[in-house]
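Contributing new complexes? Match this layout with adenosine-5'-diphosphate.
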Amino acid sequence: MNRETILLNKFYGYNSFKEGQYEVISKIISGKDCFCVLPTGGGKSICYQIPALLFEGLTIVISPLVSLMKNQVDDLKTIGISSEYIHGGLSLEEIDGILKRAYFGEIKILYIAPERLDSESFIKKVGKIDISQIAIDEAHCVSIWGHDFRKSYLNIGRFIETLPRRPIITAFTATATNQVLEDSIKLLNLKKPFIYKGNPNRENLQIYIHKEEDKLEFVTDFIKENNSGFGIIYCLTTKEVDGLYGYLKDRGYNVGKYHGKMSIEERNFNQEEFLNDNIEVIVATNAFGMGIDKSNISFIIHFTMAKNIESYYQEVGRAGRDGEKAYCHLLYNREDIASVEYLINTSIEFNRREVELKKLQNFIEFCDYEGCFKYFIMNYFGEKNTKDYCNSCSNCFKNEEVRDMTIEAQKILSCIYRTKEEVGESVLVDILRGIRGPKIEERKYYELSTFAIMKEYSGTLIRDIISELIEQGYLSRKEKTYSMMKLNKKSLEVLKGREKVFIKLEEKSTDLCLDQELFKRFRILRKDLSRREGVKPYIIFTDNLLIEIVNNYPRTKEELSKIKGLGENKLNKYGPFILTVIRDYDKYKKAIETGAN
Ligand code: ADP
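Output block (do not edit by hand):
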């Protein structure tokens, strides 16, 4: 194993790099400046953190928001990497204390906001430290063409010039058109940088655009159906936020709100409540979000259209960071265009207005587009060679063609044959997906040739195919049973390859957690630990990690150490708690079984 992978495993608990990570890391380590465009959730942080660990000296990360820095630092500390961040709440002595520790090599990664670089005395003090890398997060903010343009970002280039030794400069963003990329490279004065442009497509996001819908009805119906999911509803103005928030609150929903006209305390309180999983839905203007790296947001609703495609894609990108399926609904009424135009004309500096109006025009074209929405977005970001069909946007669903699913049907039917028509639907699905449940162990179904034959399919998708097979008469329900199935004449035709099966599925699905009750117990544990340690729940465990644990059901520390995403530090710190939850759950299940007999 090379040293990058050893560190990845030791600190983060992952066995392999995500797409692009290794390439970027090795270029940085070889001493090259780097500009990296990776989608949200693509794992940008590790790209500069692993080099930081390998380099002598300090890595400074320039990051736009305090909350973002705090989360990163909390995260790094829990996995055992020494790091700090400098924010407005610190006294001069405290800041000096941090810089001193950095000077003596006691801190590996230091996060600062770009505004720090407005101060000459700060620059002077930092200049004394041995800095190996400066990483710029949200690097699109450097460019006037970027959607979150921040003046202080322009100071970075000058700051670098004042340093006695030029560190390696690395820049990261999730969304950058070629224009933003070129502009940022120039302004940051990157030297022949290695440019990595990952595929910006986020496959787990499902994009829906609804035209001229009754917005209030849509939102209430959606939240009602989507119970227990966390989500953000974006509005254009503070007035709209107040109105929608009041409307939902009156109807008893667990909502919060966030906009620039609220007091800082109130805003921070609501943000914390949302991040701590106490508020499920937050109604907000676009002021909310840049620092939100909560991993389990499962939906974003744009109550009013966004200002441009970059903002829209950044906003929807806040959902599904954990890789789970997430819904992005945009409610588009043509009369909203005038409101957005008004906002641009009244709130944006004159010299940027034309740029913004042009971007609004692109956004309108996007909303009116008849083809695949993701294809449109990818093209906008200069991504060539994208499929013009994603099967995860409302246009693709609408235009969906019927698919030939004969092979899937044959796999399912043959599994029913091999299990002698003796198992119910859920066991059948488990066999097909290769999951060893108690019945499967007991009857040795894992020895069947059809065991794990559909392991890359989600359970929901297999169930959907089964329902379609029954509906179309290729399979029958067994009478007097709850969920068993039996083959019929038509099934045999399919099995023998004499008949093809065509199915039109509504949506792709990736529901992967196998035991919701155990998952709920882990969420409670996570909340306890997060309270005790004063960090956000998802910093302790992401939902994905919990699902990994639930699905693998580890009973020993050794088994637990094989779980993806659980590094050495977390394993030692939280391992005993996790195993206790599982032991208790074992007992609980046993008690139920005994009670039932
Ligand atoms: P970004 O900043 O690009 O949005 P993050 O750095 O926050 O992404 O990473 C997103 C998630 O992916 C985090 O939960 C992180 O722990 C996880 N992650 C990062 N690298 C890997 C990897 N190599 N394997 C698995 N998960 C990873």
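Reviewers usually confirm one structural detail per submission. For this one: The first helix runs from residue 3 to 12.
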